[in-house]
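re: ur question from yesterday

yeah so i grabbed the chain u mentioned. its 225 aa long if i counted rite. heres the sequnce exactly as i have it in my notes:
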Amino acid sequence: MMEWQVSKPLIMSAYANTSASNPIRTAKLAPVIAYLDAWNGVATLETTQPTLYVDWYEGIYMKNPRGYVATEEEIMVSLEQAMDRLVADWGTWQVAWGDMSRSQRPPLNASGKPIFNDDTPSIGTPGVPSWSGGSQISFNIRRDGLKRRYKTGGNSYTAVVNFPKDRNEQVQSKSIHVFGANADPKSQNNMDQAKLLASKTYKNSWLYLDEVKAGAKKSYHPGEE
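ran it thru and got these structure tokens back, copy pasting raw so excuse formatting
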């Protein structure tokens, strides 16, 4: 998360200045600051710093215009609120990003909007918000009544393709869909690719007829049942 390199000195400076004038206030945040200070800015399903950082960042900047310069008091208040909210929801402020950032294909309401639910199955997604500077983008926000964040946008399809210099060699391609190829919740292909994405595994893409035939589970001729 490249944006962390911008945010880190702001947080550390605000904490140092506030601690000098009000050490009692900052005592609660001391372990949080030490924890963030040791973070290298890499977000994985296992790391917990991204969960705290994303809540802190969005607490300030989501409601303000691009380029907004936060005050030290805003920086401190947002950090306190992010910590308190995580403790209230999870019992700890060290929540793995994979536990917080999830992929789910829930039912839709009458307006066509998804009805996310913390109590129904979901899969950890390694994506990060677009503002963070990450390469695997995932749009998800905190919603009232939910303690997890659910993916509603971002990278929907990603492919890695190797074009060989030798024209006699075949093109090699791997791809991944954020959920699966079938919207039917009863289908085995409904969330199968989300599981691959969570494990950072891409599937082979079939570009040639022999590959398609070898991988086909069923085939038919037009006009035949």
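noticed a couple things. The mean pLDDT is 90. also The first helix runs from residue 4 to 21.
anyway ttyl
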